[in-house]
Batch of 2 targets.
Target 1
Amino acid sequence: MIVSPSVLSADFANLQRDVEMLNASSAQWIHIDIMDGEFVPNISFGLPVTAAIAKHAKKVMDVHLMIINPDRYIVDFKNAGAEYLTVHFEACTHLHRTIQSIHAHGMKAGVALNPHTPVSVLKDVLCDLDLVLIMSVNPGFGGQTFIERTYSKIKELKQMILEGGYNTLIEVDGGVNGDNATLLKEAGADALVAGNYVFKHNNPLEAIETIKNC
Ligand code: DX5
Ligand code: ZN
């Protein structure tokens, strides 16, 4: 299992310390949540902080844009160190063009789906996607309760990917912990984001191991 700890739950006043903790962990990715106070009711951090994290991070930079009009910032996030760049389906009028642009800038392209958005909307772009991020909470905040309906969405998406013969990864984000990781893996998840479960755990390295070995 790919583990992508979300630095949204890190201590922002000790960000380098927390990034170095992740470097020393068995996590493969590092999840960066960008919020604009417009697409979601919260503001997190933006480009300079992403670049500062990238300077120290030895893990794959997995950037999740919860912003309207993400097309405006694709080149900036490339320059800030993003390797996977994920935009929201609900924020893109010309999603296919956005995906093309992410690829043209040398990044892997992901699309995130809010809990209310069915996976079927991705049918005609799935062949172009490196990643689908299924939100298992309503985006905007860490520490929310996992939505149980997510399992069936993952299964449905996995079926679509297998039928098409694609290599698209399924990532799940929100309320992931040591108790639901195994069920998420069984449903078809390839990567799990975890914020609170990792950073509020008394042993974050162990929390990461638990998810990785689920
Ligand atoms: C929520 C963010 C998540 C968040 C997950 O909008 O996209 O990445 O950090 O946090 P937890 O794991 O605490 O639910
Ligand atoms: Zn996220």
Note: Strands lie at 2-5, 29-35, 60-66, 84-88, 108-113, 131-135, 169-173, 191-194.
Target 2
Amino acid sequence: MPEREVEQHIEALLQERRTFEPPAEFRAQANARDESIYEEANKDPVAWWAGQARERLTWFKEWDRDFNWDPPHYQWFIGGKLNASYNCLDRHLDEHGDRIAYIWVPELDGETKRITYRQLHEDVCRFANVLKGQGIGKGDKVGIYMGMVPELPVAMLACARIGAPHVVVFGGFSADSLRERMNQAGCKVMITMDGGYRRGNTIPLKANADEAMQDTPTIERCIVVRRTGDDVPMQQGRDLWYHELMQDASADCEAEPMDAEDMLYMLHSSGTTGKPKGVVHTTGGYLTQVASTHYNVFDIKPDRDIYWCAADIGWVTGHSYIVYGPLTNACTSVLYEGAPDYPDKDRFWTIVEEHKVTILYTAPTTIRTFMKWGVDYPKKHDLSSLRLLGTVGEPINPEAWIWYQEYIGGGRTPVVDTWWQTETGAIMITPLPGITTLKPGSATFPYPGVIADVVDDAGNPVGRGKAGYVVIKHPTPGMLRTLYEADDRYVETYWSRFGDRVYFPADGCKLDEDGYFWLLGRVDDVMNVSGHRISTYEVESALVDHEKVAEAAVVGAQDPDTGQAIIAFVTLKGGNEGTEELIAELREHVAKVIGKLARPKSIIFTDELPKTRSGKIMRRLLKDVAEGRQLGDVTTLQNADVVEEIRQKATLRAGEE
Ligand code: PRX
């Protein structure tokens, strides 16, 4: 992030100076209420994590060695055996088999389903047998491309049960993106649905999957869950209906003992190149950190709480805090299928009221949208069941934090702002709600057992009162082990910037005078749009892929609603005109190549892009243009005159929007 921008950002953040102590009542009953948890963890992080692994999980065999570090590679709980699905299900059955695991709330009214741990276990066992019947075994990759229905966690847990890593692709991704991810992982089976519901419309998941599968040589079978009832073509010999297979499957299936370091799943994430990265998570370490953070950060009381993480399971937040965390902790979760504004803008509050939700975890962008819709929507509902709120995905501006606490939390609830990444697998920097004095806009402190700091360009700690890069100085159990079949890229991306013993997340951060961490956003070419991570390069490649486009430069510009918005500067091939129709066409093209989430908000046509004398596009300058900032010295440019032209066009366009 350019220095000026950091300063502006920090200034805005620090204007909010209020602090919030944990309410006495909350503290008195909190799972983590004693500050000694930090001291204990700091004294010996490895031993502390090992304690968490023992306390929160059931192991078939305890590990021989708790940690090994061969920088930058590391292993946790070496030789330990366990199964994630067993930890999520089987071990709860004797005492809590009748507890609700998921309250599934469909987008359309009238069919809420309450699924007990026993029922979930039965479905998972059946589906695990279905997968086995299709020749899937330990180590085989299974692609999943679904909406938010109970069959999605069933599919994931069935994979975990037999040791087949799942590769979930968010249902909003296009056929092209799906194909790329399936091929990169070499999936043998794909699980999808006829279609998914979203704002009353259907998303043609099977049609997209069909398009993707035109060129996925490793996929042998496609299992289709019926949801919308739409008529979808079923390819003979390849496509099978989920409900038909389940009917004949046995509900008896032993959980496969897995090595702690065996891959539980792979999930793709955007990096600074066009190629998505296959982030690899393991069984023992991942589950330990997810279970521990879920229990302590959300202060879970499994027998009482109704917990709702309103993310999509297609992202890491859903993997960790809708599936693995809550189920490991035998908690009751809401699983909501649809959008926050369907059928109306108070849908979330209807759900909170009806199901007496006690803990809500969502993204700042969603909160800002609620703010825009106005307080009347939450005010219509009784939200007094809520006792804790959480956010994740991007920096939360203090206004949104305060609004969330005031209008959703009734001024009573702590708000936990949790910083982490697909790569870290679980929460890394966060308050503990019974201990931490909160500052709106700050994720506060590293979780116990997480050793983080803020450093300058040379890797030296900046000290209190200064900004720099956040770094993690010791691997935690939940962190990625590698990038699938791209270990060099793993080393280069995360463990090279400051040597091979320091993990580099690529986020800017300020440490304040009290040692609080204020995360400031990405310092690389990754944009954060509505909490979705998209690389500028991916969008540029998609644009250049269009026949009329010669060159494209994409930047993420600050946006009051979505955090950042995608702004594209495009030069066209000779003979083409930059019309409104072409803008629409290009946006659609990006949606087709990547998915709707990556559509540029604005496209500005220009005859040339500003370049340095060595021919590099000056993205930083374009970012200044997109954010309406004064431009600095442009004399080093090869083509300084284009800047003024672009600036005028951008101003004009902003005026139109
Ligand atoms: O820039 C940080 C931002 O989201 C990035 C990680 O994105 P992703 O892998 O998609 O995972 C999102 C959900 C865990 C980070 O590098 N980010 C996430 N949480 C926060 C955040 N930035 C500031 N504050 C947060 N609480």
Note: Residues 175 and 530 are 22 Å apart (CA to CA).
